[in-house]
Amino acid sequence: MGVRDGYSRARRALGDRSTALAVAVVGGLLALDLLRRLFTGMVAPGQVATYLWTGLVIGLIYGLAGIGLSLTYSILSFANFAHGDHVTAGAFSGWAVAYAIAGSGAAELGSRLLVQASPGQVGASIVSTPLAILAGLLAAMVLAVALALVMDRLVYKPMRGAEGISLLIASVGVAFALRYLLAFVFGTNSRGVTASVPRYTIGGLVVNAHEITLAATALALMLGVHLLLQRTKLGKAMRAMADNEDLARVTGIPTERVIRWTWIVGGGLAGAAGYLVVLKTGTISYSFGWVLLLLIFAAVILGGIGSVYGAMAGGVIIGLTENVALVWLRGPYSDFTLPVAFGLMILILLVRPSGLFGGVTTA
Amino acid sequence: MSDSNPEDGSGVDGTVGEPVEADLPEDVETPEVVEPEADDSEIEEAAKSVPRGLPLRVQNLHKEFGGITAVDGASFSVEEGSLTGLIGPNGAGKSTTFNCIAGVHNPTSGHVYFRGEDITDLPPHRVADRGLVRTFQIARELPEMTVLENMMLAPRGQTGEGLAHAVAPGLRSGVVAEEEELRERAWETLEFFEIDHLAGEFAGSLSGGQRKLLEMARVLMTDPEMVLLDEPLAGVNPTLERKLLDRIHDLREDGLTFLLVEHDMDVIMNNCEHIIVMHQGRVLAEGDAEAIRSNDRVIDAYLGENI
Amino acid sequence: MSDDGSDRSPSESSTDSGAPTDGAPGTESADRMDRARGALDGLRDRTATFDALLILGAMIGLYGLFAIIGTVLGYPLNGVVALVREVTFFTAVYALVVLALNLHWGYAGLFNIGVAGFMAVGAYAFGILAGAPTGSPPGLGLPIAVAVPGAMLAAALVGLVAALPALRLKADYLAIVTIAIAEIIRLALASRVLKPVTGGGGGFGNFPKNPVRGIFYAGSGTDRTAVGAAVLDAAEGVGVTNPEVVIDLAYTLLVVGIVALTYVLLVRIGNSPFGRVLKAIREDELVAESLGKDTRVFKIKAFMVGCALMGLAGIAWQVYGLGGGNVNPTNNFLPQLTFYIFIALIIGGAGSNTGSVLGGAMFAGLLFLLPNYVPRVVEQFVTITARPNTFIDAVAPLASLEVMPFLGYALGNIDQLRFVFVGALLVYLVQRRPEGLLGHRKETASTIDLSERGRPGDRRGTERGRPAADGGAGAGGGEPDE
To answer: Staple A183 to which of A190, A252, B26, C416, CB 3.0 to 4.6 Å?
Structure first.
């Protein structure tokens, strides 16, 4: 008996603090090493700036998409494995509309609505067709909201109050159905979407117009969510339920109104995130949201499930981790950026399941 | 699991008294303990005529949740073969004490001894493995397992719980024999609780009262040395209450020790030969029903509570 | 009934008195075994027979369906046999993994969605252990009989590493951790860093040739062995002229054998006190703990056994089953595979081993294979006049009630439609029939039958319908595992 008991006792004595300390120490050492590398010229400042910028941009996407995942996780109590496919659905619907407007006359309507027309012909970009891009963003959000509400009505509403795992499995079903429905309608090929846009070089940092658009839009949307949560009664109710499991338990099953708005906010932001990520990467395919899902989960878990601000911050941290890791993961080792991000997520789940900020940030 | 069973069975019983006495001087230093024990001098005298041990001893137990102190230096012990009641007004800390004993909570400080061994920080399964087994306030049957499966799960130290024994051809014959014995014991125990007609049903399909009976029967299947009962009579109709109490008395007469946590004063007063009253996280008084009834501090503590 | 009564009377008294440990050891244990079998003639025996018939029925149904498909498509005998073999093979490999997952989820309630990762570990570890040292990437050249258990051990150990910290997490966290681990494994195997060992993104191709082929052909050449010549000639005699079909069939039979052994193993685990604790953990872990069960140990053991079987499936399915002799992280071990397995388990009914096999058969036959043949079968009856390339071209004519373009498009994209259907089915099952085909059944977890009181005196009159004719082989020789 001695060893196991002693072990558990020792672990309890060390408690949470030691793991936080270990994380801090490792983080501090890495930061020091980064400085050393910068000063010794092992890595160029412009390079690091680019990593930081790319990490921030993609991190904002994870954060934006993560808000919805975090809200459904906490308010409806399940991990929504279909969230990534909502992202994809938003992207396709948004770009269909953007193409319909941007490429009128350049290619036939059918191929534009299916986002199959060649990007060169359509020439959609924030510089050449800003209105089309904006219309596309709105369409992405509106259609993603509609989709989320339909899915709730068809799938989750009949299961209100079911166990988290049952809902999770149902969401896997939704994920499959949605993903392959998109493939059936829009085709399975991965293709280019946007026309090229100007790049700006600031020091060693290269930034393009679409990245700036993305960052600005994402920040604006996050601000909007912030205002919704802080200034409206509905927002306060959502926050309370998302934040505080006990409150949710006391008040019972959340009201349909709160649930509806959870899907509206979560779905809309997922659609916007999908649309914007295509704006940045310039390519679209039916499965890209599914691939992003695990990273979005990582963002949500890092920030603490239920915390909206945690999800935003967690997204940026995951984005930065994935990119700044390239300072150390050079050459063939760069294949390990995703494993590093996933590993970070697992670590957080194991040592600090309440997330980095411990769920206290929403207040 | 198998490593600790021999410890329980061998020698420990015989030496129960010694660690108790050895630790007593420490107890004296904490004033809370001395007072109630002094009250019970007659009972202690009576107990000395038939020398019995104190299998469970709780010593200066503290438990804080965040900033709130739920248990604040509780000390008491339970006599071998007794039906001891633990009672107190709402928020007295009896449930927390119970959970600290059962290993669900780790106390902030203080100790729990069972049969002279310090079990303070042991996880629930190791506490149960030593023969100190609990029931739940709301009966927790295993719904998608039959009543008999529930019963046969319980016995401690089953060889068939080893993976190799479950699978390997040469080792299985022993398991079969053991299972037959357990099945027989399970049937007998179900008969004792008069729920044998439900043996093949899913436990989830039982009524609330039947679940209470199953829970007691299941605990009995572990062949416990002492049973911790967490409000076993809460929400139980009078007929069933009588039935459960009769069974408890039967078992106590067979030598089983019980610690009964109850909210209902009458139940405790009419059934327990030794009663521990907790209030604000401490032991307020100890003694038999008569002593408790005439204790002013107990009456004060219960004022405002409708008894 | 009276015949064995007289045999057993000497030791009867000792068991009646509730002390079966005394008495002559020899007759005692023989008697126990006898009684065990006697007890098993009860409900469980009937269940076992029913299960066997159920699986048999399902397979006959599938075979019938595919035989009709083969006939409609005008396949020669070679083709029909190949079709039946394909159904059998995919049923078997799905059943194998679904059984393993059932141990995790159905029994212990461990929501593992990293199945593909553990299969990958098995497949790659096998390749590294058994691959030729001269091949690329080089292997250790160990015999297959060593490499297979080695690979299973590797998968179990990776399972242990994953399980040690993760098993205390709640179910949905465990799900996320396991899928992340599977992705880490997959990405690591595909990485350029590990390319010298794993072959990187191009995959690992240095596997020993399928051992079953060695039964038919000597060395690496085309010379038939004695057995090979005999079997292949016999096959030709009945019209199966393609030796590859015969070899594939032989390999499939080997996999079926593995599945049968796995099934027996898992039924035994399930019907044991060990399995009983696993079920209790699934139902209410705190209760199991409060009864003295060290649930962590049980969970870790169950997790490792399941992972080992997943590793085995990685070899049987992805390495040798899919024919290429090459496994590739981006083709063979995507997370989707895990979800196929999950859906198969939910169809069959989590918690039931027989249900697992049935679910595997249903998924493999009706959802995985059947859609591949639907377009061709349909075209036997309907002449498809239009095959538009895009959805809009397919849908637009619907306005003028022209169905053909849509039909043509749907048949051309049956792959996608199949998964839309699979997703919808999953939602339907969770909403309407979460217990699947057999999930809510009473499959009591105990080594003996609990449906009978089983007190020796009582049992005498009610059971023992058949004499203990199945011989006195192992302790479980008379188990109605099949």
So the answer is: C416
Q: C443 lies in a domain?
A: no
List chains touching A (3+ CB pairs under 8 A): B, C
Tell me, which fold does domain B5-141+224-302 have in CATH?
A: Rossmann fold (3.40.50)
Cis upstream peptide for C149 (omega within 30°): no
Q: Which of A165, C82, B249, A269 is nearest to C73 (CA)?
A: C82
Could you tell me if B170 lies within 8 Å of chain C, comparing CB atoms? Answer: yes
Burial of C222 by CB count in 10 Å (0-12 exposed, 13-18 middle, 19+ buried)?
exposed
Domain boundaries, chain B: 5-141+224-302
**In degrees rounded to 5, what are phi and psi of residue C303?**
-65, -45
Contact B55, B257 (CB under 8 A): yes
Q: For every one of its 363 residues, what pLDDT tens digit does chain A have, with 9 covering 90 and above?
A: 344 444 444 444 445 567 678 878 988 999 999 999 999 988 888 889 999 999 999 999 999 999 999 999 888 889 999 999 999 999 999 999 999 998 887 788 888 889 888 888 888 888 888 999 999 999 999 999 999 999 999 999 999 888 888 999 999 999 999 999 999 999 999 999 988 888 888 888 889 999 999 999 999 999 999 999 889 888 888 877 776 655 655 665 567 888 899 999 999 999 999 999 999 999 999 999 999 999 999 999 998 888 889 999 999 999 999 999 999 998 899 999 999 999 989 988 888 888 877 644 343
Identity (one letter) of the amino acid at C293?
A: K
Q: Give the span between the Cα atoms of C337 and C97, in whole angstroms.
A: 10
Where do we find the tokens 């493939």?
A183
* C-alpha distances in Å from residue C452, one per residue of B197, B199, C49: 12, 10, 18
Residue C420 inside a domain? The answer is yes
Residue that the structure tokens 């064995």 belong to: C4
Instruction: Please report the beta strands in B211-256, taking only residues with DSSP state E, as ranges in sequence order.
Output: 226-230
Does B163 sit within 8 Å of C32, measured CB to CB?
no
Q: At residue B260, what are phi and psi to the nearest 5 degrees? A: -110, 115
Q: Are the C-beta atoms of residues A352 and A358 closer than 8 Å to each other?
A: yes
Chain-centroid distance, C-alpha B206: 24
Contact C448 B176 (CB under 8 A): yes
- Per-residue burial over A7-39, b = 16 or more CB atoms within 10 Å of its CB, e = otherwise: eeeeeeeeeeeebeeebeeeeeeeeeebeebee
Strand partners, A210: none
Within the 344-363 window of chain C, which residues sit less than 8 Å (CB to CB) from chain A? 346
Kindly tell me the sign of the dihedral angle through the C-alpha atoms of B19, B21, B27, B32: positive
Rounded Cα distance between B183 and B152, Å, is: 7
CB contact under 8 Å between C32 and B187, yes or no, is no
Judge: C180–A111 Cβ closer than 8 Å, yes or no: no
Give a yes or no: residue C28 inside a domain: no
Which residues from chain B sit within 8 angstroms of residue A5, using beta carbons?
121-122, 126
Tell which residue, A39, A22, A18, A59, has the closest CA to residue A325.
Answer: A59
What chain A holds in terms of domains, given with CATH numbers, is 43-351 (1.10.3470)
Containing structural domain, residue C47 = 43-381+413-432
The residues pairing with A200 across neighbouring beta strands, listed in sequence order, are A207
Residue B112: strand, helix, or coil: strand
C143's CB contacts (< 8 A; 6+ apart) are C130
- Shortest CA distance to C109 belongs to which of C60, C171, C186? C171
Helix, strand, or coil (residue B39): helix
Contact by Cβ (8 Å): B189, B215: no
CA C209 to chain centre: 23
In a domain, C1, yes or no: no
Domain with C376 in it: what CATH number? 1.10.3470
What spatial distance separates the first Cα and last Cα of chain A, rounded to whole Å?
45
CB < 8 Å to B127, chain A: none
Residue numbers in C near A174 (CB within 8 A): 423, 427
User: Number of folded domains in chain C?
Assistant: 1
Do A54 and A323 touch, CB atoms closer than 8 A?
Answer: yes
